[in-house]
């Protein structure tokens, strides 16, 4: 009896201690918390479902102690992008927070949950947004679908930073993804409901997890002896020696002790020994009866007898990213096909066959977990083997708009043109290249164009040369293809007839009749005209000679010559003296019998270079020559007399510049006028000129070197060499220089004075004094 009394006393003590505490209903006071709702607003969340999500958040907030020093709440929504609706520091009161939730507009795009967790970790839980140091950070993620990005790694990073994550999945949510996001233990942080309409059903359970509400303490549970709390609920238990009645709340005492066979001592009843416990695994006897116990990895079912293997995979109590393989009470992780298990034996990484080069694509490898497909670069098409690529030949397929030539590159083309054509600005059409029109030919007369090429032809009366470019007039006269009696005058491809002087052309335009020239023309004979067939001649009285004009009579006969004047135009001559030189030249011209068939005159000026001012065949009267001389520009610079002699020999006395053929015995005379020493050698070409039959005259002024002048002049030197001390005296030389008059009149020389001789110095001094005196008089006047 004493033992029974002690047991009863203990039972009363326990019963009193187990009764619920009375107290007023109050909000969750779990201490300061920084809470962020991360809500999925992807397009799969329908409008009415989003409204249910609003109510879910508002219902939870209504149970929390909201305040800047209590629970702070922020809201972030996400889809393909992430947006903060309000931060932790935005609201200090529930009513403004509810207003902010009701104003949220869904984004309605994809489901980038990993991006959203990263955003919350880096942006929401910072001091600038209201995060408090040493205050727990809690995230409640509400989503209805599988994430479109990777969440495991970023969730691990967030948890390592001390953020506690609750994952609430609705309808289509993926349990493996929820577990990859949530903090352990999963039974306290992962929730999954079938629809948004049912989300409010676990609101109280969620609040318990968040706030740690004990319904045995906070509510009237009605348990007679012991109240045992569970998340969002409770159930009643009885003290040892009592059993729970059918009402689930009251308890009834049981007889715990039996009398032994000695009828003296007592033994606690071993209820398991009765053989009627029906336990699946083990029966454990206790003071007030027995209970069943299951082996490790199993749990006792509600009937208290049956044991069921604990399937942690099915219960979601695992952290496998993809596949959970269950064994009683334990699990292992695996990955889907195309993925490989991480070293942590939980997360999975896609097998990148492309990156690992485990493929046979020719160009582009497109990876999917554990598999790959091939593609081709732009301009290529995939072959039937789905691996190799063939360039797309738009030209061969006729998929181009080139007028002539299509040049193919993979997937593209460019246009070109055939030889002789050029590509237009539109890069498609071609235009023939007309070399004739562009002047890109060397035809002398007619250019006949074909695309990019040409041929030459000639005008009527011309024939094409062997070079197929130049044309030669068809000279019917020279070819004897005419019937003129005397003179055939040719024009390209045609001819006309004429008659010799003294004959006239008959009406047939071919034959000629002799004329009596002395009686029919103004013959101009000074004395007497003598007639010859087709011509006439003049006759002079006895003792007189017919002159070069063939008409006048005189005591001597002038000579026809070809005269080239080599005039020094070097810098030392000076402009004013060069004008005196030009007058000197014209004095010489005045003494000549200038005509086309008489004397011809050419003018060459030289300094450091040589310039033909006019050749022998340019002018045929003295007046024309004198006018041309006065227009000559002074060259200046050096004195290259040797170069000038070379030019005279090779060019000036050529037939192309008017020199008459040597077989006509027309004298060739060269006159060199210079005022200084030559800067090049004169010996070679002075000698060659004289050897070529040219009679050379040398006229020197001032600083001209006598030796050079004598080397230039022909023999006898005294008749071909002239010198004066200054330019004012050159007119005297011109008067004495008789180049084409009768030999009796040609003195050939004047006194050559040594400029350094005493009498020369005296003359120079007297001339200088006279000039100075005249200059003084001009200034005085």
From TrEMBL:
Signal sequence segment: 1-18
Give TM regions: none
Q: Which organism is it from?
A: Pogonophryne albipinna
Principal localization?
secreted
Query: What positions does the domain VWFA occupy?
Result: 34-210, 562-737
Q: What is this protein called?
A: VWFA domain-containing protein
Tagged with keyword Repeat: yes
Q: Return one GO MF term.
A: calcium ion binding
Kindly list the GO CC terms recorded for this protein: extracellular region
Record SMART domains: EGF, EGF_CA, Matrilin_ccoil, VWA
- Subcellular location per the Swiss-Prot or TrEMBL entry: Secreted
Under the heading InterPro entries, the entry gives: cEGF, ECM_Assembly_Org, EGF, EGF-like_Ca-bd_dom, Growth_fac_rcpt_cys_sf, Matrilin_CC_sf, Matrilin_CC_trimer, NOTCH1_EGF-like
């Amino acid at each position: 009896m004493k033992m029974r009394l002690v047991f009863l006393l203990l039972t009363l003590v326990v019963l009193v201690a187990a009764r619920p505490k009375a107290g007023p209903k109050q909000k969750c006071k779990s201490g300061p918390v920084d809470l962020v709702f991360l809500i999925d607003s992807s397009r799969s969340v329908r409008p009415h479902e989003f409204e249910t999500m609003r109510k879910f958040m508002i219902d939870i907030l209504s149970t929390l102690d909201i305040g800047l020093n209590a629970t702070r709440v922020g809201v972030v929504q996400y889809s393909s992008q992430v947006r903060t609706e309000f931060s932790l520091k935005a609201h200090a009161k529930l009513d403004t927070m509810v207003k902010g939730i009701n104003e949220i507009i869904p984004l309605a795009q994809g489901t980038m949950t990993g991006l959203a967790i990263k955003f919350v970790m880096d942006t929401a839980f910072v001091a600038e947004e209201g995060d408090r140091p040493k205050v727990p950070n809690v995230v409640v993620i509400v989503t209805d679908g599988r994430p479109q990005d990777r969440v495991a790694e970023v969730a691990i990073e967030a948890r390592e930073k001390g953020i506690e994550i609750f994952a609430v999945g609705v309808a289509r949510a993926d349990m493996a993804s929820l577990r990859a996001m949530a903090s352990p233990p999963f039974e306290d942080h992962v929730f999954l409901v079938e629809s948004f309409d049912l989300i409010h059903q676990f609101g109280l359970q969620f609040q318990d997890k968040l706030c740690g509400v004990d319904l045995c303490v906070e509510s009237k549970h009605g348990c007679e002896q012991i109240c045992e709390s569970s998340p969002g609920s409770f159930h009643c238990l009885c003290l040892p020696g009592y059993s729970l009645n059918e009402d689930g709340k009251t308890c009834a005492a049981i007889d715990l002790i039996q009398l032994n066979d000695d009828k003296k001592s007592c033994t606690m009843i071993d209820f398991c020994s009765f053989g009627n416990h029906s336990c699946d695994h083990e029966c454990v006897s206790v003071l007030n009866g027995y209970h069943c116990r299951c082996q490790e990895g199993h749990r006792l079912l509600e009937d208290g007898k049956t044991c069921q293997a604990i399937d942690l995979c099915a219960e979601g109590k695992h952290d496998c990213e993809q596949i959970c393989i269950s064994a009683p009470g334990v699990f292992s992780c695996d990955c889907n096909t195309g993925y490989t298990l991480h070293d942590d034996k939980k997360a999975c990484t896609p097998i990148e066959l492309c990156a690992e080069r485990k493929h046979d694509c020719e160009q582009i490898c497109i990876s999917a977990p554990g598999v790959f497909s091939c593609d081709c670069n732009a301009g290529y098409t995939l072959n039937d083997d789905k691996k190799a690529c063939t360039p797309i030949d738009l030209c061969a397929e006729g998929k181009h708009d080139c007028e002539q030539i299509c040049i193919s590159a993979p997937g593209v083309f460019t246009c070109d043109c055939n030889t002789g054509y050029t590509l237009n600005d539109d890069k498609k059409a071609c235009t023939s290249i007309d070399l004739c029109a562009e002047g890109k030919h060397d035809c002398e007369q007619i250019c006949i164009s074909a695309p990019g090429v040409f041929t030459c032809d000639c005008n009527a009366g011309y024939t094409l040369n062997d070079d197929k470019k130049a044309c030669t007039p068809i000279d019917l006269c020279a070819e004897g293809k005419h019937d003129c009696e005397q003179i055939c005058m040719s024009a390209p491809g045609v001819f006309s007839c004429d008659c010799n002087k003294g004959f006239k052309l008959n009406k047939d335009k071919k034959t000629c009749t002799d004329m009596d020239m002395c009686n029919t023309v103004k013959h101009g004979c000074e004395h007497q005209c003598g007639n010859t067939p087709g011509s006439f001649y003049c006759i002079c009285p006895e003792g007189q000679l017919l002159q070069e004009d063939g008409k006048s009579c005189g005591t001597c006969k002038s000579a026809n010559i070809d005269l080239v004047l080599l005039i020094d135009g070097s810098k030392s001559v000076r402009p004013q003296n060069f004008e005196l030189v030009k007058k000197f030249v014209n004095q010489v011209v005045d003494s000549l019998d200038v005509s086309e068939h008489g004397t011809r005159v050419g003018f060459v000026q030289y300094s450091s270079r040589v310039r033909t001012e006019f050749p022998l065949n340019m002018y045929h009267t003295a007046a024309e020559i004198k006018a041309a001389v006065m227009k000559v520009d002074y060259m200046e610079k050096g004195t290259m007399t040797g170069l000038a002699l070379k030019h005279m020999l090779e060019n000036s006395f050529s037939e192309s510049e008017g020199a008459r053929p040597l077989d006509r015995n027309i004298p060739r005379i060269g006159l060199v006028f210079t005022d200084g020493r030559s800067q090049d050698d004169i010996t070679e070409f002075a000698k060659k000129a004289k050897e070529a039959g040219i009679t050379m005259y040398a006229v020197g002024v001032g600083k001209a070197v006598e030796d050079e002048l004598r080397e230039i002049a022909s023999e006898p030197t005294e008749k071909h060499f002239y010198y004066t001390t200054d330019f004012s005296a050159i007119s005297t030389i011109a008067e004495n220089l008789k180049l084409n008059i009768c030999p009796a009149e040609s003195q050939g020389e004047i006194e050559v004075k040594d400029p350094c001789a005493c009498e020369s110095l005296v003359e120079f001094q007297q001339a200088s004094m006279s000039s100075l005196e005249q200059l003084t008089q001009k200034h005085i006047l």
